[in-house]
Amino acid sequence: MLSAYLRHHYPRPKLAQDTATRSTSSTIQAAPFKTFVYIGTLSFFLHPPAFLSACKEWAAGGMFSFWILSDLVIVVRGLTGRDIFYSKGMDFLSGYKLLNPQLKDFLPHTQLKEDQTWGPVLASFSRTGLLEKHYATVLNAIVACHESWGGQGSVDLFKSMNQMVFAISLPLCGCQHLASNPKTVATLINIFDRLDDGATPSALLFPWVPTPARVRRFLAGIQLYRMTKSLVEFERQRSDIDEEDPLQDLIKQNYPVSEVARIIASILFASVVNTANVFAWALVYLEHHAEWKARVLAEVATFLRENDLENSTSLVNAMAGVPLDVLDEKLPSIELVVNEVLRFQLGPFIRRNIGGDIVQDGVHIKNGAFIMFHAADLHHNPDIFPNPDRFDPERFLPEEVEGRKIHGTSFVGFGAGRHACVGKRLALLEIKMMLVLLVAKYDFTIADETGASLRRIPSPNVVQLFKLPEPERPVHIQYRARKGHSTY
Ligand code: HEM
Questions:
Q1: What is the CATH number of domain 76-481?
Q2: Using one digit for the tens of pLDDT, what is the confidence trace for 158-188?
Q3: Mean pLDDT throughout 404-432?
Q4: Measured between alpha carbons, how far is 14 from 32 in angstroms, rounded to an integer?
């Protein structure tokens, strides 16, 4: 009711003179939105993705700006926008902190020096050396999920992939001790669901109001702190200390427990949200494009055969013996599909300009302003990706990528520039492991929640701006163990 009232009183932006009380004093046209001194542009908070797409339509390819509380956000567009966004002097974290209340609470609080970032600490958790060390544990975590599915049935695809990636990520985040107990894993998943719940920009409004979702998040935070505290105490007493262990590193540097909890939480968020949803979307797109499904399955069959995994007495043991480099090189088609999924589904990114005023192509961005750039400005640009609505993973064949270099950075599925994703290799390896074990054990199809085949690719439900969305309606994976499948 409230949102209907607000929409009635503050309708979609129209092409008109700015009525905002503040002006950007730049050459970027300030959006003609109702702007409130203490809130900013109200319609942004009601439904951020809908607001942004309405603005894009309104601004017809041009740049526009709006207010979040007392901060100006400039949406930079096109290739000029890309150049501004990926230029020097852009702060990565303060942008996400501005808009994502969940991050605001869960990013480390320790003050860093001017030129420091959390990147190296976070990157230390995504070293593939860790994956090598925990290879068998990761494979066993996938198998444990399959065992909970049984030989035949149907489960919610996005939910179960989230559970699977969560279980894989725990040992890689230094929580191998917690990962070994399925009950603890279930509790942690529940904590993260509650932390994620209600993590929309609207939570920035009236943050003092204790809505049920906020109370749940608060309690989940305390529970996570307690679990991390016992983890840190356990790790402190361990005698078999491993020099390469990033959690041990943090403990040695005497980070407070609350800070360790926040670092582990941010790593788990970074590694789970995108990896799980990308893999789930990839299976959905494959279901819709039979020729690609056949191609991916054929590659897995060849991989199993070439590595003598087909008739192994224990697939997990045999697969743990396949070097990660081999996994990197093989199964190229699923990588092409993952890139194409990201090209379709990725949303906006945000930064804060802390490097002084910028003037480029007549656009003036003041120091301190936030800037947003939508991946679609590159990914759906027909000059860069001809016929952009067509699903065509071959766009990512090496020769095609080479041909696009004349455009500069054209694909940002794993980010670009100084904040490119540190977990890309890890994510692709995890996706390949999940794919191989899935195909080795099951025949599967993707269906809607009633069990009917998908007639079209489901619409994404874009609730959070910086997270790969899930579909509007649940999608299921229907599976049946293959006759004579490899034993785990
Ligand atoms: C398919 C899965 C993944 C996708 C699509 C993905 C995508 C991205 C993108 C687009 C960015 C850049 C964001 C920006 O420019 O604002 C990024 C950054 C980052 N990603 Fe990923 N990511 C994935 C998996 C992972 C995993 C598994 C980890 C960790 C273990 C991870 C850790 C990070 C970190 C720490 C950054 C920030 C780097 C920095 O601060 O410089 N990501 N990722």
A1: 1.10.630.10
A2: 999 998 998 888 888 777 777 777 788 888 8
A3: 93
A4: 7
What is the distance in angstroms between the CA of the first residue and the CA of the last residue of the chain?
Answer: 53
Instruction: Give tens-digit pLDDT for 111-149.
Output: 665 555 666 777 777 677 778 888 888 898 899 889 889
- For 61, half-sphere exposure in the C-beta direction (CA atoms, 13 angstrom radius) is 6
- pTM: predicted TM-score of the whole model, two decimal places: 0.87
Question: What's the rounded Cα separation, in Å, for the pair 249 and 242?
Answer: 9
- If one compares 322 and 19, the residue with the highest pLDDT of the two is 322
55 is in an annotated binding site: no
Question: What pLDDT digit, counting tens, does each position of 344-356 carry?
Answer: 999 889 999 998 9
Q: Give the three-state DSSP class for 94.
A: helix
Q: Give the single-character DSSP code of 69.
A: T
**Which atom of ligand 1 lies nearest, measured to the CA of 266?**
35
Q: 421 CA to middle of ligand 1, Å?
A: 4
C-alpha closest to that of 149 among 486, 476, 483: 476
Please report, for residues 158, 274, 396, 443, the alpha-carbon distance to residue 277 in angstroms, rounded to integers and kept in the order given: 6, 5, 20, 21
pLDDT attached to residue 312 = 76
- Can you tell me the distance from the alpha carbon of 173 to that of 329, in angstroms, rounded to the nearest whole number? 25
Ligand 1 midpoint to CA 24 (Å): 31
Mean pLDDT of 257-269: 79
From 421, 424, 426, 465, give the residue whose CB has the most ligand 1 atoms within 8 Å, as the site to mutate.
421
Question: How far does the centroid of ligand 1 lie from the alpha carbon of residue 122, in Å?
Answer: 10
Residues touching ligand 1 (Cβ under 6 Å) are 92, 117, 119, 122, 125-126, 267, 270-271, 274-275, 278, 342, 349, 413-415, 419, 421-423, 426-427
